[in-house]
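Minutes, project check-in
Item: structure for the 346-residue chain
Input as provided by the requester:
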Amino acid sequence: MTEQYKERRTVRILAIESSCDETAAAVVENGRSVLSNIIYSQIADHTLYGGVVPEIASRRHIEKINQVIEQALADAGMTLDDMDAVAVTYGPGLVGALLVGVATAKAISYARQLPLVGVHHIEGHISANYIENPELEPPFLCLVVSGGHTHLVKVTDYGRYQILGQTRDDAAGEAFDKVARAIGLGYPGGPKIEKVSHEGNPYAIAFPRARIADGEYDFSFSGLKSAVLNYLNGCRMKNIPIVQADVAASFQQSVSDVLVEHARNAVREYHMDKFAIAGGVASNGTIRAAMEQMCVQEGVHFYHPSPPLCTDNAAMIGAAAYYDFHAGKRAGLDLNAVPNLKLGDS
């Protein structure tokens, strides 16, 4: 870490994350040391429906939010009296889910007179890299790939971002879920496609790699999703056997190729020597290995969180909040959920 932050006093932050279908709380010290990180996953609740049901997600958050906060404090061996601030994700995400976390954080802030820090969900994903890579400091490039987001970002400083590109339609993780459902793998799609892909040929089917003429670093995965659906329909109409593993592997390879190509071009254009990935899809071993290989070829240092910190969690929110806290950013008790919050907006 820079001397600016090494010289600061110890700051402990209680962080809360409830933007989608994980109810999470963590205690983070000085933005890099995780004292506890509790996650209640709702996957079992939503698997029956093939995806996240917002109303169910909100109800589960209400049921579990106090429990995960109490467990996070207990695991850290601390109480609210030991906290210097409370941080919470306030967007983007499902509005009902976000409101549960925001309301809880505001209540704690008011009752204990603790400073309140609102955190952008994507900023949290990017900041997950700081936790396991203490030597990582801005500037660097980061690719955020998750169920709801695909962003290629230049991190110019702590809390300062330049969006180079983002998805025009489906996020990569969303495409994984839809394709997994189409080939009969079910929800959640990402881990299931990766698993079955090991048994398939990634070049068996020539699925498209989308390029956008007016946005070199923007992404589009809806065409790829449609190509997979058309292929499946064509096979069924012609009574051609569908090899599930080949479809999964070929789809995954197409996504990986596009992500790596965009990343490589950005590394070269912006002359960056550090590249990071983040988000739920960043835990995909095939994509992570392809990114690492690209970085080796380009002579770039490669960073990534471990899988538990790729998925939604509160530790990453605490890491991001630490730098906002020291920058003097505070939220009032009028903080509200912003489901379509853009990175860089406040």
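Outcome recorded: The beta strands are 12-17, 22-29, 33-41, 85-91, 116-120, 140-145, 150-157, 160-166, 274-278, 301-303.
No further action items on this chain.
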